[in-house]
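On clarity, I found the account of how folds are encoded harder to follow than it need be. What matters is that the chain and its backbone geometry are given together, residue for residue. I therefore recommend that a typical entry be quoted early in the introduction. An entry of this sort, consisting of the sequence and the corresponding backbone structure tokens, reads as follows:
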Amino acid sequence: MIHFEHVTRTYGPKVAVSDLTLRIPAGELFAFLGPNGAGKTTAIKMLVGLLHPTSGTVRVGGCDTATRAREATRLIGFVPDEAFLYDKLSGREFLQFVAEMRGLSPAEMEDRIEREAATFELNGFLDELTETYSHGMRQRLVFASALLHDPPVLVLDEPTVGLDPKSVRLLKDLLRARAAAGMAVFMSTHTLAIAEEIADRIGIIDRGRLLFLGTLDELRRARANAGTSLEHLFLELTANGNGDAGPGIRPAFLPRSG
């Protein structure tokens, strides 16, 4: 479903993402990890069509996100790292607005809003202005809006920031269920314990270069640390800060197609 093919993005002399090749098939929950400034958000912005690659191509469902952006974005639900809402709209009005943009019929709109409101436990405040919402409530509303049109691809940038433990548990269960139902989930996160718990595969990027791609068990075997946590392995892998994966890892280790 998601294909990065030799993607590079520069800002003047700065290389934010360098020759990224990555494929995420339908039904996979993929965690994209890296230190601050590693290139994660730039890669996500190219994936959802907010930025164009300097070179290479990004495709979603076979649609180039640069040349066929409208078709590609129809396939994507996107949750950015900072929730943007219209403060003078109620939660329901915001969801209706998003549903209309997504081309849902009035009947579909009503059914989907009720469905997602129930999923994210929004009913108690759905008719209140979003300016009164807490950060966690705003996040849940954005999650609901991203799923209204039943996208086959869900992209999340730091989705658990500001969520309480109950909401985090709800989100983890939801993501696993959606992936099991065939959705491709691309999640950037600094919360390594969540990636360790629910991700099928992980990718670790540092200074724009993909250092590792595979399962946690493959990373442990490559580093000869069978019982080590993802947090320890991540810090070990990115410790020198110069994009060198270190012993036991070659760049983009064990890529898989899909």
